[in-house]
Amino acid sequence: MIDMNQLILTGNLVADPETQQAGEATVTRARLIHTESFKDRESGEWKKGDPMSVDFEIWNGYGEAFANATKKGTAVLIEGKLRPNNYERKEDGVTVFGYRVRVDRWQIVAKPGTRPAAKKQARTRRENTAPNNG
Questions:
Q1: What is the pLDDT of residues 2-30, one digit of tens each?
Q2: Nearest-angstrom CA–CA distance, 102 and 104
Q3: Looking at the domain assignment, is residue 2 inside a domain?
Q4: How many domains does the chain contain in total?
Q5: How far, in Å, CA of 84 to CA of 122, rounded?
Q6: Residue range 84-104: average pLDDT?
Q7: Is 126 domain-assigned?
Q8: pLDDT given for residue 121 in this prediction
Q9: Please, which residues bridge with residue 85 across strands?
Q10: Stretch 26-48: mean pLDDT, rounded?
């Protein structure tokens, strides 16, 4: 059986990260929105898919550094493992099942307002550039 739990995502933070005390440790929690792009087969145009919200957490000093370096709108890349995030609702006792990414590595892709506007470029098929030895 393959035993692999690794996730790499990019997206924009929907709010400023929040750091809380968890016993003797600290945990920084945040949420990002990832929207996948795809090429429409009929029109040939690039379109955006449905946005996907992903909660994640970063522990101790690494998380505190993340909270200090980022804010709402920051584009980030996170790498980590998927963990269960289940809880029971107080109002009706129903168990809610969910997941959260426990981040092992993060990187800032762009700060809010610093990304240049996307340029529309025609995508062309790469031509064979092998030398002709004939």
A1: 889 999 999 999 999 999 999 999 999 99
A2: 7
A3: no
A4: 1
A5: 42
A6: 93
A7: no
A8: 44
A9: none
A10: 93
